[in-house]
Amino acid sequence: MKFFLSGLIAIGLAIVAAPSSFAADARNVTVVNETGYAIKFLGFNAPDDGLDEWDNELDKVLQNQASTYVEFEEDDEGCVWNIRVDWQNYDESVLWMNVNLCKMTALRLRYDPGTKTTSFIAE
After folding, report:
1. What are the strands, taking DSSP E only, across 1-123?
2. pLDDT in tens, 66-102
3. How confident is the model at residue 106 (pLDDT cuts 50, 70, 90)?
4. d(CA 53, CA 65)
5. Which domains are present in the chain?
6. Would you say 46 and 82 are in contact if contact means Cβ atoms under 8 Å apart?
7. How far apart are CA 83 and CA 93, in angstroms?
8. pTM more than 0.90
9. What pLDDT, on a 0 to 100 scale, did the predictor assign at position 50?
10. 3-state secondary structure of 46
11. 82 and 98 in contact (C-beta within 8 Å)?
């Protein structure tokens, strides 16, 4: 009986501690494409990595009005990241530098055809 109670206490403590270990990384972000154009590349890199090192976070083209959830790994460090977007049918990229991802949970990408600028709204 003594071992049974000890086991129950250990399980209880593990359950109480579990939510913090499974908490979402503060940098994880949902990217919503509201630009009117398909995106073929979405990359994040740390400011110290330079602008030549990127990994595509997309498994497939991100169509207009679609979204994707980007998860960061534990060994990724810091809240501030550079973000790059490449369009499916154009040879142009958009680059935002030093974006603090810890202050948002979503990025809504927008394009203004009048000014030909791409921006994002952080939520």
Report:
1. 29-34, 39-45, 67-70, 80-87, 93-100, 106-112, 117-122
2. 999 999 988 888 999 999 999 999 999 999 999 999 9
3. very high
4. 27
5. 29-122 (2.60.40)
6. yes
7. 10
8. no
9. 86
10. coil
11. yes
